[in-house]
Amino acid sequence: MANFPSTESIYNQVLADKDASYKGSAVVLLSSFYSPNIYPPRAIDPKNVQRLKSIFEQQGLRRKDPENRIPVLLSQETFQLGLQNSNIQEEDLIRHPSNSPPLFVLPDNTVRYLHGHHRLAAAIEILPPRDQWWGVDIYLENNATSALVNYIENQYPSSGNITDGEIFRNIRLSSKANDTIKEHYWWSRLTATKRRELKQLLAHFEYRAGFDKLVDIPGLWPALKLGTLHRLLPLKCDEEICRYLEWVRIAWMELLDGDVTLLGGIDRQTVEAIELRVPAISLCDRNFLIGLINSGKIFTLYTDDQKSIIREKIPRITDRIPSLGTLFEDMKYLEPLATSMKFLIGPEPFTKQPSIYSSFEHMYQGDSRGSEEFNERYRMLWLFAMRNFPQMVSVSPRKERKRPRPTIYEPNHRILNEFAQLAHSLGFISTTINSHVDSIPEKEMAREFFRKARPEEVYVYDDAFLDAEVTKL
Fold it and tell me: What is the pTM of this model?
C-alpha cells in the first residue's frame, strides 16, 4: 500500500488551496458543462435522477443557493474568455447580491464540473430549453492541487449514499492513476474491518487483476458488499473465481458487440434488469429486455443506433448474464462444493498449496499437469460434488419463510468412498484418497454408529473390541 499523507495535512492544504483558487460565483448555461472523467466516482443512477426530479418539482430547484451551486474548474484562458463574453469584471463574481449572480457566458462543453452530475441530468429533463442554467462556484485549475480537486469532487450533498462496491472501484481507479491523495480519501470511507479484508484481497495479484478488468463497467459495482469478502479467500477457489470475473467482462462485452467505449454507459439499473437472464433460450427474458430498451428504462445513456445494435445482440446471448452481484450469490453454492473438494486433499503437503486447483495439480499422477486432460478430470470431480454435496458436507439451504427448517444430514460414508474411488481412478493421489479406497464404507458407517451408541467418554473399550463389534454390526 502507498504511504498516505496525514488527514490533517491534507485538510490544511485544501483550505489554503481553496482560498487561492476560488474566484466567485455565477450562473452558467447547462450546455457549457462537461466532465472529463472517463470513470466518474459513481455512474449516473436513473433512480437518483428521478428522486431529484421529484424534489425539484415539489420544492423548486433553488439553483442560486450556495449549498446547491455546482463547483467548476476553469483554466486561466477559459476564465478570461468568460469575463470577456459576459462583459463583466473579475470582482463582479464576488461582489453581487447572493440571489443575483452574473451570467458567465462560455461555449458548449468548456466548463468542467467537479460534482453534481445527477443534478444536471435532472435539470436537463425538467427545465425548458430557454431556462437551462445552474449556479456555480468557480475555481482556477492553475491554483488547484489534486487535494482540492479530490475534496470537491467527492462531496455529495444531493445524492444517495455511495456503496461499498463503488468505494472499492474508486480505490482501484485512484491506485491505477497513482493518485495517493484520492486513494487515501476512498480508503478512509471504509470501516477498519472492511479496510483489512479488502487489503487482504488486493494482496492477491490474480484477484486484483480480475477485479481491475471490471472497473470500466460502473453499473456492476453497487451490488458488491465488502462485508462478504471474508468468505472469498478461505474458499481457496482462486482460479475458479478469477475465471468468473473474466466471464463477467466477456458477457457484457458480447452484449455491446465488443465495443469497449460503451462499457462506461452501463448503469446500475441496467445491470439489475439484465443479470441472470438468458435471452437466447428464454423468450420471456428476450421480450422483457427488449421492452425495457424500447421504453428507455435500460441502456439510457446510449444513442438509438447503439441501442439498435444491442437489440440485435440480445437474442444471441446463449448463457446467463453474470455480474458482481451474481458472483457473491453463486459463492453460497460454491462453498459446500469447495468443502467437498477439500475432503480429497487431505493432510500436508497438499494443504500448503494456495488453492484447490494447485493442490489437485500436485496430487495428479498424470504426465501433464494443467493440460486439457487434467482440467477435464478436475472438472469431473467438481461435477460429482455438485450432484452429491448434500450427502458429503453438513450444510443445508437457508430456511425459507413459513417453511420447516431444512434438515442437516451427517456425511454419507458410501458417497465419500465413491468420491475417493472416482478421484483415484482419474489419477489423483492423496492420503485421504488412499485410505478411503482401501476402506469398506459399511464398516465406517458401523464404526460411527457404535461410537455414537457407546461414547468413549462413558464406555471403556480397546481397538480390538471395537473392531469385533463393528464386524458384528
Answer: 0.73
